[in-house]
């Protein structure tokens, strides 16, 4: 077999793996030698077969590269390559220097005594052992659970074909229309009129409406931080086929993202994910700072590049506003720019803003806060700014954070939890809105350690929101506490009751009604899982298992892990094995977990049955999220050597994952190693991977990029953006699964692991002879 | 005398001081080092380890005894340290304690140590975490991905970035 490093050098991380392996092997050898020495003294035969824990040690120490044939090739290459040996020497030196740089702290006897004293005093803590906690219960009853599983297995055969043969109402690339607004920067109270020319899908609807995700000046980042989703207007269709409406945003709304949908929410035009936008202007017609600020908040988690571009525009429009510069600095920091470079780039600007601040008769608390926050973290200037901030603006958001740290520092010295909570109570009352959650979150954790139920109740009301997720976390936290357990169970049951109503979980702007229903179902299952685990704590094993049984539809890894743990806790070994079989088969689970579980399970006589059942559950569960849509028209692409290609033709060959990438997008570049791994894994299952770069020409730079990152799969560019339009793509990296018969099976995912699961589920459904539907 | 680790864990789950103390003796040194890698400050690391052992008897109920206890404890410690850092919105560079930088009579080596330490401190937390966990503590990329909530691929990319930056510092110091 030819070496993959004939024409290129291994990457630094591949070299680093080799070094790490060598070090671990050496450590293990030394530990084994020492162990054998001890064993000889203890009379144990050092050549005895390793016990269970020893095997696990070995499992954990098998690193990524040892599992790949690539590792041997790296070693072979290093043996003959002077350049890579020099790099290896550097890496080894770095590891040695890093280890040497500090003499490791020592675990002291006094610290041990402090821990034991704290335990005796009644101190407790909740550790992040897993995403969710599971506790033990003494007894079990499995019959009803097993019936549910049997029914689920039987349904698998029926539901997969039903799902794939469901009539496809959606055709890729036919939803988008054109929206024209009289102004995208309305002044407060200004009437905005809109005209909408619908695409074929929405034009059939009897009525359309415009919905908006709206933000006030103080809203938080991400979709969840917005004030809410509102219906702005119902559109009327004119005789010329154009849909029209008018609306006025309330004065407090500084930013709104718009989408058009039919009134049942079955079809949504969200401008290919970008949404249309309205940013409030001031009386002179200039876009307000707060509007752009909220645009950045709204783009958070959706489009990092556009967020950064907005920060640049913010700086251009408001060059004297320190908040704008702070945004830009933050984006640089997120991009991995070093602190020194950031300070070099922005330092002078912040000093200038500080001089202006000093020239004012009175200091502006907001400016002072940002000056402190953006100051070079190792500088004495920052210390001076901190003192000034605490003195002149103690209720500023950054000052409150510093006071919080001071209070916690005092607590660490005094261990006087009561005094700390009293101080935090005062701080909470003085804190601005954006800082209250931080104060409340920390104090709630402290309150939980006191066992004082009135304190816990009081702070829980401050820390958890009233949404489904917040109340579920509250219920789960209460269940950990004996005196609050009944309340916790009641809370979880109340969440379940509420989830029967769609209004309990507001539908997102771009979320279709069917996707919303699936999300409601997922939330219901997660709440059932939380309630099931809570019931294991109370010892009601029968109710726990019944509840968990209802949670185990679909393919949700955290839920499966929870059910497996709960089953173990109540002694239901068969149920535990069934859940573990699913986890062992999940293609996105870590390899060592899958190997370990498979090794355990394969010793069981019923392993073939467990595996078959898990395979059915995988296909059914993953395809539960499918939303197939045919590619209705050709979508012209181009290969790197200039030949024409077509997304629809690709979709009609075999099951394929299409990755949409940009070489200018940091997350897309970060995803490349995972993409390569995914492509290699899928190829062995007969699934192709294609990459589409968001570029209009096949430049030499792009070819060099492809070579540098060893992308060996078919590469395309999208010169006319037809591919992006058909896929409804916005943002990178995005992954789509094509079924080989001309359809895009799922909405986009940015996670290669999800794409892997989805492609394998489609392939396995196909292999079982389940025919996809005919093209419309 | 050989220690029955199963019995020790069972006793620790019940909150028995002897068992908890024995686990501390066995694991605290490594956990302290791991926590210190994340927080950058000895005081913070000691607090993390304190919190881990104070909460350990209850947390052990979630330890299924299939894997190594020390690996599980390291995971819990890393998560606790990360939570502490996130909760306090502090960065490594703010807390990094250079007062116990190793002293060596070799001036050139000492200068090299300072340069590498400085380069390490200037790395963004997200990148430095991966470097320290992988190259110094020996975690796999899959493991790091689970701990940091990123893909193994992203862990590899961050490691490359860290190595690039640190190599530059290494060469500059020569």
Main sheet attributes: strand count, strand direction, barrel closure of chain A: 8 strands, antiparallel
N→C terminal distance of chain B: 50 Å
Helix and strand composition category of chain B: mainly alpha
Which pair of chains has the greatest number of interface residues, and how are they split between the two chains? Answer: A-B, 89 and 91 residues
Count the DSSP helices of chain B: 9
Structural shape of chain A:
globular
Write down the Rg of chain A: 29 Å
Which bin fits the share of residues in helices of chain B? Answer: over 70%
Question: Gap between N and C termini of chain A, in Å?
Answer: 46 Å
Number of helices of chain A: 31
Strand content of chain B: under 5%
Low-pLDDT stretches of chain B are: 93-100
Percent helix range of chain A: 40-55%
Tell me about this structure.
The complex is a heterodimer of chains A (776) and B (174). Chain A is built from 31 helices and 17 strands. By secondary structure, chain A is an alpha+beta fold. The two termini of chain A are 46 Å apart. In chain A, 55% of the residues lie in helices and 11% in strands. The model of chain A is unreliable at 37-67, 131-173 and 771-776 (pLDDT under 50). The radius of gyration of chain A is 29 Å and the shape is globular. In chain A, strand 14 (688-693), helix 29 and strand 15 (715-717) form a beta-alpha-beta unit. Chain B is mainly alpha-helical and 174 residues long. Chain B contains nine helices and no strands. In chain B, helix 8 crosses helix 9 (152-172). Classes of the chains: A alpha+beta (776), B mainly alpha (174).
């Amino acid at each position: 077999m030819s070496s993959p490093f004939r024409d290129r050098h291994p990457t630094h991380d591949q070299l680093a793996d080799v070094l790490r392996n060598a070090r671990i092997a050496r450590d293990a050898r030394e530990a084994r030698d020492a162990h054998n020495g001890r064993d000889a003294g203890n009379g144990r035969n050092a050549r005895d077969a390793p016990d269970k824990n020893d095997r696990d040690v070995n499992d954990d120490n098998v690193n990524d590269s040892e599992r790949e044939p690539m590792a041997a090739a790296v070693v072979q290459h290093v043996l003959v390559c002077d350049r890579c040996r020099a790099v290896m020497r550097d890496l080894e030196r770095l590891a040695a220097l890093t280890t040497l740089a500090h003499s490791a702290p020592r675990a002291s006897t006094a610290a041990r005594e402090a821990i034991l004293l704290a335990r005796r005093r009644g101190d407790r803590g909740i550790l992040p052992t897993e995403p969710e906690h599971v506790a033990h219960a003494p007894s079990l009853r499995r019959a009803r659970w097993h019936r549910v599983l049997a029914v689920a297995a039987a349904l698998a055969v029926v539901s997969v074909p039903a799902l794939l043969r469901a009539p496809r109402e959606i055709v890729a690339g036919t939803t988008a229309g054109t929206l024209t607004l009289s102004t995208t920067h309305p002044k407060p109270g200004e009437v905005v009129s809109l005209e909408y020319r619908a695409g074929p899908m929405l034009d059939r609807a009897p009525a359309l409406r415009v919905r908006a995700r709206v933000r006030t000046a103080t809203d938080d980042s991400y979709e969840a931080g917005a004030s809410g989703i509102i219906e702005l207007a119902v559109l009327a269709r004119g005789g010329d086929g154009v849909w029209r409406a008018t609306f006025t945003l309330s004065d407090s709304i500084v930013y709104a993202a718009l989408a058009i949908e039919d009134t049942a929410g079955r079809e949504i035009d969200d401008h290919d994910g970008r949404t249309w936008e309205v940013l409030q202007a001031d009386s002179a017609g200039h876009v307000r700072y707060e509007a752009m600020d909220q645009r950045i908040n709204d783009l958070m988690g959706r489009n990092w590049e556009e967020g950064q571009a907005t920060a640049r525009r913010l700086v251009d429009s408001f060059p004297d506003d320190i908040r704008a510069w702070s945004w830009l600095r933050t984006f640089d920091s997120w991009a991995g720019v070093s602190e020194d470079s950031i300070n070099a780039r922005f330092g002078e600007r912040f000093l200038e803003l500080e001089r202006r601040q000093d020239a004012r008769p009175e200091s502006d608390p907001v400016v002072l806060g940002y000056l402190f926050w953006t100051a070079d973290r190792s500088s004495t200037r920052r210390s001076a700014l901190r003192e000034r901030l605490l003195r002149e603006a103690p209720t500023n958001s950054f000052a409150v954070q510093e006071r919080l740290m001071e209070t916690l520092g005092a607590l660490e010295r005094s261990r006087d939890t009561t005094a700390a909570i009293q101080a935090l109570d005062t701080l909470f009352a003085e804190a601005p809105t954006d800082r209250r959650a931080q104060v409340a979150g920390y104090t709630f954790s402290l309150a939980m350690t006191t066992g004082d139920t009135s304190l816990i109740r009081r702070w829980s009301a401050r820390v958890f929101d009233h949404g489904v997720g917040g109340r579920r976390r509250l219920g789960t936290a209460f269940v950990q506490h004996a005196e609050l357990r009944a309340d916790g169970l009641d809370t979880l049951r109340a969440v379940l009751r509420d989830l029967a109503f769609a209004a309990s979980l507001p539908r997102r702007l771009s979320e279709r009604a069917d996707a919303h229903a699936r999300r409601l179902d997922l939330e219901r299952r997660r709440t059932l899982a939380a309630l099931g685990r809570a019931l294991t704590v109370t010892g009601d094993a029968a109710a726990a298992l019944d509840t968990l049984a209802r949670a185990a539809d679909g393919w949700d890894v955290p839920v499966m892990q929870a059910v497996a743990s709960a089953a173990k806790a109540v002694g239901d070994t068969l149920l535990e094995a069934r859940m573990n079989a699913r986890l062992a088969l999940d293609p996105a689970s870590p390899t060592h977990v899958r190997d370990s579980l498979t090794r355990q399970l394969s010793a069981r006589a019923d392993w073939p049955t467990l595996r078959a059942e898990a395979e059915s559950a995988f296909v059914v569960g993953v395809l539960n999220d499918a939303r197939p849509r045919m590619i209705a028209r050709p979508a012209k692409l181009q290969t790197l050597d200039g030949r024409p290609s077509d997304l629809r033709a690709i979709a009609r060959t075999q099951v394929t994952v299409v990755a949409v990438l940009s070489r200018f997008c940091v997350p897309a570049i970060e995803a490349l190693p995972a993409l390569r791994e995914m492509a290699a894994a899928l190829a062995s299952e007969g699934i192709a991977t294609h990459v589409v770069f968001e570029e209009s020409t096949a430049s030499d730079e792009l070819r060099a990029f492809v070579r540098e990152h060893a992308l060996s799969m078919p590469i395309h560019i999208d010169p006319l953006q037809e591919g992006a339009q058909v896929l409804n793509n916005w943002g990178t990296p995005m992954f789509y699964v094509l079924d080989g018969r001309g359809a895009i099976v799922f909405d986009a995912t940015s996670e290669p692991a999800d794409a892997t699961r989805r492609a394998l589920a489609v392939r396995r459904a196909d292999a079982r002879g389940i025919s996809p539907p005919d093209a419309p | 005398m050989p220690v029955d680790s199963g019995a020790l864990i069972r006793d620790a789950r019940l909150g028995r001081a002897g068992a908890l103390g024995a686990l501390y003796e066995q694991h605290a040194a490594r956990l302290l080092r791991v926590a210190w890698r994340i927080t950058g400050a000895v005081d913070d690391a000691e607090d993390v380890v304190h919190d881990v052992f104070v909460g350990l008897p209850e947390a052990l109920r979630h330890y299924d005894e299939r894997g190594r206890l020390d690996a599980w404890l390291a995971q819990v410690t890393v998560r606790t340290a990360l939570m502490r850092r996130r909760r306090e919105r502090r960065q490594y560079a703010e807390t990094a304690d250079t007062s116990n930088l190793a002293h060596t009579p070799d001036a050139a080596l000492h200068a090299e140590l300072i340069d590498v330490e400085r380069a390490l401190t200037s790395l963004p937390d997200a990148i430095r975490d991966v470097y320290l966990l992988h190259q110094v503590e020996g975690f796999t990329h899959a493991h790091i991905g689970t701990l940091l909530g990123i893909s193994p691929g992203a862990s590899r990319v961050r490691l490359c970035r860290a190595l690039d930056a640190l190599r530059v510092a290494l060469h500059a110091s020569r």
